[in-house]
Amino acid sequence: MELQADIAVIGGGMGGVSAALAALEAGRRVVLTEQTRWLGGQLTSQLVPTDEHRYIEDDGANRSYRRLRDGLRDHYRRNFPLTDAARADPHLNPGHAWVSPVSVDPRVAVAVIDDLLMPYLAADRLVVLRETVPVSVATDGDHVASVRVRTASGDEIDVAAAYVLDATELGDLLPLAGVEHVSGRESQEQTGEPGAWPTADPTDMQGVSWCFAIDHLEGEDHTIDRPDDYAHWRDLRPPQLDGRKILSFGEPATPAGEPGRVFTLNPNPDDDVIDLDHRNMGLAPELWNYRRIAVRRFFTPGFFRSDVVVVNWPMNDYVGGPLFGVPDAEHHWHQAKALSRSLVYWLQTEAPRPDGGTGWPGMRLRADVAGTEDGFAMYPYIRESRRILALKTIVEQELSTAYRGDDGAERYPDSVGTGHYYWIDRHHTTGDGRGAGGTPHPFEIPLRALIPRRLRNLLPAAKNIGTTQITNGAYRLHPVEWSIGEAVGTLAAYCLENGTEPHAVVAAPASVEDFQRVLTARGVQLRWAEDKRW
């Protein structure tokens, strides 16, 4: 079987959905594939509420991303029994989460994304293939001719398109198409970054987290069966954590013995104070409200029996090995979920309580929220992908406050979007174990970082752009991935409309400016104000 389209988007995460929408709105026919049953990637199938920045409500987001955010809030206002105060709040945050200004049930995000795409499905301009993975790529010189995908039923389909966008979570098309790319950590010699290691290691990648959702019903017992490998995870002290147990609330964070982390189930409103400015994060952040997706007091009394919380914590950051690039990659997929399963059991049975006891048997695994039988996310939370060798590689000296001082991030003449986060967010890795990567100024997305050096009609549309392992830590968040997808979806449509190709566009300043006018007309933010800083 073969499908023909103007643009094929392989991968239905944040970047893939955004790219498809941009191409569809430009009048193009699109085939969109997704490995899981849900579109939305890190926001939905990976169970991660939006990671955003402190300016997000007023600045630093495309119009299309604001439409998504508004859609999430409006869905709650239309369909949920909110309190009058919550309904009237223009910055409604249903989970009242510490890390996200719009923290929602993933099923709401799925519904909103499906609504955004429905008109194009109805008009037969979009084909969506869920539970479908790429298995091979046919190339003709420096062009991709088609992508063969396999559905859940085992059927194989050749998708042929003028442009192919790789929006997969791990950059799966890059090796299949022979695209020059890197993975893991680069060396100082390769990137010139002061924060890079002297040596490179393509298998040294940020850990993944297999997320899950929980609530707590006092007086009930929802303890899962003890995992066979529970003792291993309970006692494990990964070398990346300097000998600390992974299943713990942390070692004392100060000489005074303050706890590393706080965990207070269903806290009283007076004690549940949220400051969304991550620069003010204290030494003992509260885990319960960190990734919470429903807070009871925003809904009519009794509607929710408990808050609902997504667990994406340091305790389920898996650093045992990468998910690709090694012979035992499949083993690490299983181990990442096994760690999270043991974390559930530890929380229910052995986790230390403030009252001196251990465990909360009333803690319930919310399989319905995850959309799976076992209660864990459909897909692990991916922080690092294969990355193209692009016409331009973004390096830490171009955005890090440590090297730019008060000068702000590099301003690129070919900017096609903006982004920001509180940190260059680098979790512990599968190799050297390093974490934090400093802080970034609000930054731009250069067009050159979205174009492979050689391939002419394949473009990256997710976390697989021309970043280094370090700068990926700032460019991988939800709104940035959305902006990347929108830029490449618009670029592919622009090239088809004007009979050109990405390499020709970026090579001519006049063409770059014309393309930027197209993006601006779409509501894409290309620049930050001169005075915007971290």
From TrEMBL:
Gene3D superfamilies: FAD/NAD(P)-binding domain
Pfam families in alphabetical order: FAD_oxidored (PF12831)
Region (Disordered): 183-202
SUPFAM superfamilies membership: FAD/NAD(P)-binding domain
Coiled coil segments of this chain: none
Matching InterPro entries: FAD/NAD-bd_sf (IPR036188), NadB (IPR005288)
PANTHER family: L-ASPARTATE OXIDASE, SLL0471 PROTEIN
Listed name of the protein: FAD-dependent oxidoreductase
Source species of the chain: Occultella gossypii
